[in-house]
Amino acid sequence: MTEVKIRKIGNSLGVILPKEVLAQLRAAEGDSLMITAAPDGVFVSAYDARVAEQVEAGRGIARRYRNALRELAK
């Protein structure tokens, strides 16, 4: 676990990721990161276009079959 502080960057807020964290993410300057909500916080991972496409496809299926999925969840 690594602690980082929220800092003001221009008119926004951000965090500076230590090089060890970037190495674990296999990310570098200019790369995109995915931040996903999880039940106990958030999950940060390196951006992967294939995963983003899969997530969008899943959202489309969830919208299209919303009623069926709601019934199955009962």
Describe the model:
The protein is built from 3 helices and 4 strands. It is an alpha+beta fold. It has helices spanning 19-25, 49-64, 66-72, and strands at 6-9, 12-15, 33-38, 41-46. The termini are far apart.
Order of helices and strands: EEHEEHH
Question: What is the number of E strands?
Answer: 4
In spatial order, strands of the major sheet run: 1-2
Number of helices: 3
Distance between the termini: 37 Å
Q: Tell me, rounded to a whole number, the average pLDDT.
A: 90
What proportion of the residues is helical, as a percent range? 40-55%
Short summary:
The protein has 74 residues and is of the alpha+beta class. It has helices spanning 19-25, 49-64, 66-72, and strands at residues 6-9, 12-15, 33-38, 41-46. β1 (6-9) and β2 form a beta hairpin.
Secondary-structure blueprint:
Layout: E1 6-9, E2 12-15, H1 19-25, E3 33-38, E4 41-46, H2 49-64, H3 66-72
Antiparallel strand pairs: 1-2, 3-4
Question: Which features does this protein show?
Answer:
single chain, 74 residues, alpha+beta, two-stranded antiparallel ribbon, two-stranded antiparallel sheet, 4 strands, 41% helix, 27% strand, elongated
